[in-house]
């Protein structure tokens, strides 16, 4: 039952999780969680008040004292339990992600499995402990460098991977000895709630992991609190920049993964069927709401003749949210209106709409897949991150021209080339200024041991999420020089 500031409703209200307990916020309701496939209101989300955010941080600060001094093997054993329970509850996550996010079964399973893999990687922390020690660096002087946890770290999450992205943050922050306060997306808060339940069952000491619900004001309260030592943000570029600037002004570290415009270069010597299937899956899978979705196809030379076959593939994309579906609805009516406006702008600005699929229902936030050609870099549909099932197609004459186009783009999250030429692939991989490159792979997301290495306006910060840099982000080096001989 929603009950905040005297407001009564039969719709459930999302709760905060502070000091090991679920709590009802006294803040105002800031929005509804709806089923994107039907428009049905499922829950409401409060905007946690500053004092509630401060209380969550205080609880994390208190927990940090004993958590950070617990033997590493003990902290890791909590993570093993956490991982085990997530694994047992995969079906709960899949159902939650489908309900709140409108994902297909495959996409929802991928969301939690990719997150689970980071928890598994964090379980290996005992084998990754890195310190340095040298005896007699000067006469009778020894030197060591140790890595210590930071303290209270916070995470701010987007809507599009409600399980995976919190799990990019929480396991590594926690095994390295920090305590954590998570602010889930107000559009899909249910998966974080499941993680809180799991942290209880895994026996995490109260305060090690906390959740505050909310939007902008809650984020501001988190960033303004002087006890917060680091912020992990994933979301759009305009908001990520604000978060990064605020963190930097306070002298705390930030890792901000942000928006994208990912280009796939199609060479005429590519394997045609593999390339067409890859482009279709990468452009329309997850309804284009992946930061690594391919949203621009760059056809080089003769490869433009593949366009009709690509349109045919788009027409075959199955809309729905069940096991056999390829693509679900968009997250919100606002996202739907934005996609439609950008597609219309392409028409007005002289592009050609080669295909625009029909929405299967007038309820919910359905749009069909869209393929647009004759696009130029000046058009809004090229400049903006659309974050929907829209593939814009450009035609260039050479690989050099394709590389120059991509390098001129302000985003640098992912890119791909489709070719059978090792020479073209090698040139592309070395000259392209994008952090994650696929060669005959459309969505080159790095596995947990490597770290997520977006660049330019897609990633601000020096230490990418997960991988070795993830451990480095959540720890600080300290050097001790000692003499015990006289
Ligand atoms: P968003 O920027 O709207 O929201 C992200 C978070 O910021 C949410 O928790 C939200 O409550 C909070 N927020 C919103 N407005 C704020 C403000 N003014 N001040 C402070 N906090 C604010 O992003 P979204 O729509 O939820 O997610 C989609 C975006 O995330 C896309 O741009 C996508 O490319 C990006 N994304 C990037 C990656 C990556 O790894 N690069 C991964 C997933 C998503």
Brief descriptors of the model:
single chain, 486 residues, alpha/beta, Aldehyde Dehydrogenase, Chain A, domain 1, Aldehyde Dehydrogenase, Chain A, domain 2, 6-stranded mixed β-sheet, 24 strands, disordered N terminus, binds nicotinamide-adenine-dinucleotide, Ald_DH_C, oxidoreductase, methylmalonate-semialdehyde dehydrogenase (CoA acylating), EC 1.2.1.27
Characterise the protein shown here.
By secondary structure, the protein is α/β, with parallel strands linked by helices. The protein has two domains: 16-258 and 458-481, Aldehyde Dehydrogenase, Chain A, domain 1 (3-Layer(aba) Sandwich); 262-439, 3-Layer(aba) Sandwich (Aldehyde Dehydrogenase, Chain A, domain 2), CATH 3.40.309. The protein has 15 helices and 24 strands. The protein has helices spanning 50-67, 72-88, 90-101, 105-123, 164-175, 190-201, 216-224, 237-249, 272-284, 307-315, 333-348, 380-383, 399-408, 422-431, 467-473, and strands spanning 2-4, 7-9, 16-18, 21-23, 29-34, 41-46, 132-138, 141-149, 152-156, 179-183, 209-211, 228-234, 253-257, 262-266, 294-300, 352-356, 370-373, 390-396, 411-412, 415-418, 437-439, 455-456, 459-460, 475-483. The longest helix has 19 residues, at 105-123. Mean pLDDT is 96; it is low at 1-7. It binds nicotinamide-adenine-dinucleotide (NAD). One of its GO terms (molecular function) is methylmalonate-semialdehyde dehydrogenase (acylating, NAD) activity.
């Amino acid at each position: 039952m929603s009950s905040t500031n005297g407001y009564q409703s039969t719709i459930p209200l999302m709760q905060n999780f502070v000091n090991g307990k679920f709590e009802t916020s006294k803040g105002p309701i800031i929005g509804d969680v709806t089923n994107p496939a039907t428009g049905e209101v499922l829950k409401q989300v409060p905007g946690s008040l500053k004092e509630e955010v401060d209380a969550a941080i205080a609880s994390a600060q208190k927990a940090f004292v004993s958590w950070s001094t617990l033997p590493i093997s003990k902290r890791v054993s909590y993570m093993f339990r956490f991982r085990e329970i997530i694994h047992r509850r995969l079906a709960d996550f899949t159902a939650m992600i489908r309900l709140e996010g409108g994902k297909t079964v495959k996409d929802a399973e991928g969301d939690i499995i990719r997150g689970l893999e980071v928890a598994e990687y964090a379980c290996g922390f005992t084998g990754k402990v890195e310190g340095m020690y040298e005896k007699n660096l000067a006469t009778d002087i020894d030197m060591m460098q140790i890595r210590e946890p930071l303290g209270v770290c916070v995470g701010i999450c987007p809507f599009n991977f409600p399980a995976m992205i919190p799990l990019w943050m929480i396991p590594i922050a926690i095994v390295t000895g920090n305590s954590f306060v998570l602010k889930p997306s107000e559009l899909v808060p249910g998966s974080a709630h499941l993680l809180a339940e799991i942290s209880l069952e895994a026996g995490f000491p109260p305060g090690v992991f906390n959740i505050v619900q909310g939007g902008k004001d809650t984020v501001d309260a988190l960033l303004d609190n002087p006890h917060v030592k680091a912020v992990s943000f994933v979301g759009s570029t305009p908001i990520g920049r604000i978060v990064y600037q605020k963190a930097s002004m306070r002298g705390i570290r930030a890792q901000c993964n942000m928006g994208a415009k990912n280009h796939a270069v199609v060479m005429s010597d590519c394997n045609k069927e593999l390339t067409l299937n890859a482009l279709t899956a990468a452009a329309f899978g997850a309804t284009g709401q992946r930061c690594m979705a391919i949203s621009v196809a760059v056809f080089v030379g003769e490869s433009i003749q593949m366009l009709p076959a690509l349109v045919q593939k788009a027409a075959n994309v199955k809309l729905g949210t069940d096991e056999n579906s390829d693509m679900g609805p968009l997250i919100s009516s606002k996202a739907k209106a934005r996609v439609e406006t950008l597609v219309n702008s392409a028409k007005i600005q002289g592009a050609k709409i080669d295909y625009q699929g029909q929405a299967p229902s007038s309820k919910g936030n359905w749009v069909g897949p869209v393929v647009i050609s004759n696009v130029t870099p000046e058009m809004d549909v090229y400049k903006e991150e659309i974050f929907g099932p829209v593939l814009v197609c450009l035609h260039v004459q050479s690989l050099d021209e394709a590389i120059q186009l991509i390098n001129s783009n302000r985003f640098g999250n992912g890119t791909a080339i489709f070719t059978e030429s090792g020479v073209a692939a090698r040139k592309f991989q070395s000259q392209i200024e994008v952090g994650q490159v696929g060669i005959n792979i459309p969505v080159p997301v790095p596995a947990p041991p490597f770290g997520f290495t977006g660049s330019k306006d897609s990633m601000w910060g020096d230490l990418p999420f997960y991988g070795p840099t993830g451990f480095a982000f959540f720890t600080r080096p300290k050097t001790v020089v000692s003499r015990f001989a006289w």
